[in-house]
Amino acid sequence: MINSQRLKRFFFELVQIDSHSRDEKKVAEYLQDKLERLGAVITMDDTAEKIGGNCGNLLARISGPLEGKVEPLLFCSHMDTVVPGEGVKPVEDDGVIRSSGDTILGSDDKSGIAAILEMLHVLKENDLPFGALEILFTVAEEVGLLGARNFDTSVLKSKRGYFLDSEYVSKISVGAPAAYRMRYEIFGHEAHAGLAPEQGISAIQVAAKAINNMPMGRIDSETTANIGVIEGGTATNIVTKQVILRGEARSHNDKKLEEQVAAMRKAIQDAVDSSWIELDGKRIQAHFEEATKREYISFRIPESSLSYQLPQKAGKAIGLEMEPEISGGGSDANIFNEKGIESLIIGTGMQAVHTVKEHISFKDMENCANLLINMIQLHGKA
Length: 382
What we know:
- The chain is α+β, with helices and mostly antiparallel strands.
- The chain contains 10 helices and 22 strands.
- It has 2 domains: 256 residues, 3-Layer(aba) Sandwich (Aminopeptidase); 117 residues, 2-Layer Sandwich (Alpha-Beta Plaits).
- Strands 1, 2, 3, 6, 7, 8, 18, 19 and 20 form a 9-stranded mixed beta sheet that branches.
- Strand 15 and strand 16 form a beta hairpin.
- One of its GO terms (molecular function) is metal ion binding.
């Protein structure tokens, strides 16, 4: 039922439009043109002003012949990509689409956008029965889910949402972890590294000691942690006065998450407590400042829910053995679940995302588009 060449054209056109986070305007313009041709009513919110971007979240409403008879459904993908995502040149080899090798591909999340576009075209050109659809394309997902955070969900009529932002088409993400982001600023004492190193406290050394004693990586089956950014130092001949560490912790278990955050903080505290010198009869002590923020809450949707049963049954009907999975990452679905919209994540086939080795099987994209169409048809019979 899908038009494979059209689906591929959508995807190739989308990935060649530059759209780093906060710079999604050209993608939004592309989508607005396509959606208006389908008769959608389109609005854009004021998120751009709030996050310093050039584009807000794009919401399209499409009425179907079953509107008012079946509940409306929300489908969502994000428009932004990570760096390096400018000048993408997609190439296809034996059914697999990749970038030319010096950029990401952008299948995260433009494969989801392409699948949604194809779904809408198939519904319209085949006069298939469907209810009201709300299609949301968010901004700045890759830099803290900023588009979803600033979107006013009270404008939606849908109570259930499907977010196309994962790997395997045969998997339905029914859960995702909560997360904290942390920023630690460690202060030592500056001195000349060659003339009087003993008169300094190296903030780099304090940070290294803290990291060495910090539980990181996969803590257990539910919890992970990482220090991903280290900034500091001005010259090789100066004992470094200041270092900034940025990290995160995630867990499906709130108690474990709080314990992990506390353990990371303790490692910093212990390192600075043990780092001091005496200079001119005075004790000079290392110290630190901390900024810790809860990024999003965890969610878990039961397999008995109608939200899960719809893609599970729709996939099975077209030969996909759909299985539930628990994701290790956060997405816009975390925010929407927190705001009261029961939301699951559906895969599109994207692989090795956020790397220059990113790729996607076109067959998976076809399966994803077919899954969406069958979900809507099945929902119309409910």
